[in-house]
């Protein structure tokens, strides 16, 4: 195993020569939040946290780390769910949240250039005020755009618009040795050699550090309508999705949810959901430039849902009605977390025609393993979020049942031709499941790519495909 240098007072002195001491956290200045991400149970404290403010600072820091063989863990808002921004080898944690500036809105090329610490909710608000849409819409709005790019985040609008990768035109990055590179740019087409930009997207900080991003924008739709559709069972709800997709009505989002998760959200938010009588729901959103255009879409979808067994149709055609529904949807993760002592999650993606098979398996597994599993997700793109809850299990029982349940869930996803992660990434926590789901040759190729970008393995070690 690689041996990394642990930082000492000499390193602190050397690094403060090019980074202000008031933006460095050292020793007992490092608070507990920097020892884990949103879901990671194990704590690993970095030796030092550096709150960088420029590409040049990061370049100098990486040059120093490379020269002294120090592990560096890039980190945004720390909202990840797989331990990707946890400092397994201690070393330096590079916090990019102060790099949160909007650099350029280019309305001729429909691009926005930003630093990596801009929060997703700030980005959405900024572009919408100017009449544009940044389509990727992950549920965690307080995540940074750098983190979204590092995990190739998807979100609820992926069914219509695609994922983060589809909206990154260019990146400025710092390599492990401190080299600054620009990859891609504002061009729409690019067939100029291997696409290094796309390799960085989704690499979870293991290949390079993102310091700027050029994002593609779309014109902002003028109108939107949400449709909440209750069904007697989740199986019936999810079986309605393939006919909806086939109808070419093009919903912006198709989410599925169960009554028990809605009840958790009601309790967490202290407010009622518009309807909580059915066992399962589809939540759909339609965007367009006129209500007539949108109505032509949702009328068709409404008929399909009723044919597939829907109990009712609730139309949210005002901002207030839609906000109450989507706010509850956005609170699902925190609501589930607050209902138990500890949890872990599975973020699998399967062909969308087989989502119901996976959900039905989760229900079987709850009974078989005698453990609570809460599930919701993106029915339109096949990405499911299943949360396994510890409740009152002892640590020993939890470890045993969790590992067995995870093994069964990932095995089921493989049998349905699915993948380990749809949008949260692999990080540290899901490495063994990735290895079980891809060929040995694929792992060797991934490790080879890592070695070319980072021959000393100092960037975010032990993540994704590394030992």
Automatic annotation (TrEMBL):
Its EC number is 1.1.3.15. The keyword Oxidoreductase applies. One of its GO terms (molecular function) is FAD binding. InterPro entries: FAD-bd_oxidored_4_C, FAD-bd_PCMH, FAD-bd_PCMH-like_sf, FAD-bd_PCMH_sub1, FAD-bd_PCMH_sub2, FAD-linked_Oxase-like_C, FAD-linked_OxidoTrans_Type4, Oxid_FAD_bind_N. Residues 42-220 form the FAD-binding PCMH-type domain. Keywords: FAD, Flavoprotein, Oxidoreductase. It comes from the Bacteria. The keyword Secreted does not apply. PROSITE patterns: FAD_PCMH. Its cofactor is FAD. Pfam families: FAD-oxidase_C, FAD_binding_4. It is an enzyme of class 1 (oxidoreductase). PANTHER family: GLYCOLATE OXIDASE SUBUNIT GLCD. This is Glycolate oxidase. It comes from Pectinatus brassicae. The lineage of its organism: Bacteria, Bacillati, Bacillota, Negativicutes, Selenomonadales.
